[in-house]
Design a protein that fits this description.
By secondary structure, the protein is of the alpha+beta class. The protein has six helices and six strands, in the order βββαααββαααβ. The protein has one domain.
């Protein structure tokens, strides 16, 4: 008997995981790929959070949150950065790569790379932006705090 959640010819994903057919990724049970709206909301939420925390508070909060695989805005909205190839939440190193190198490539280099990143995010089934591609991550919504 075959599992309807596993595409034909694919290997079983293991206990505690499911295959997300829309994105082609293996994700933990209870976790889903973050929606476009939720991700865009996090992007715009970061601006008032920076203002309220006087930027320096946001930077300190961000450094602490990176160790937990999230950022301040993602944390407020119940999202985490996940490494599907390793089946774990991103650690500080990939988060730094994603946010520093990815952020530089996305925003500082030019408006064109920012636009390319946004188009990638909107059109890819796994919803990866340029920083996600650089760090081999995806952003997931974790409403039940399965990822800790």
């Amino acid at each position: 008997m075959t599992d309807p959640n596993i595409p034909p010819g694919a290997q079983p994903v293991g206990a505690g995981f499911h295959f997300d057919q829309a994105s082609g990724l293996v994700l933990p049970d209870g976790v889903e790929l973050a929606s476009h709206g939720r991700r865009i909301g996090a992007y715009f939420l970061a601006i008032p959070l920076m203002l309220v925390t006087l930027v320096i508070g946001y930077l300190i909060w961000g450094l602490i949150a990176w160790g937990k695989g999230t950022s301040p805005a993602l944390q407020v909205l119940g999202m985490k950065v996940y490494r599907p190839d390793q089946r774990q939440v991103a650690t500080f190193g990939p988060m730094a790569l994603r946010n520093i190198v990815g952020g530089i490539a996305q925003g500082i280099l030019s408006v064109i790379t920012l636009l390319v990143s946004f188009i990638l995010f909107l059109t890819r089934p796994d919803r990866r932006s340029l920083p996600d591609l650089i760090a081999s991550t995806v952003v997931v919504h974790d409403p039940n705090k399965v990822l800790g």
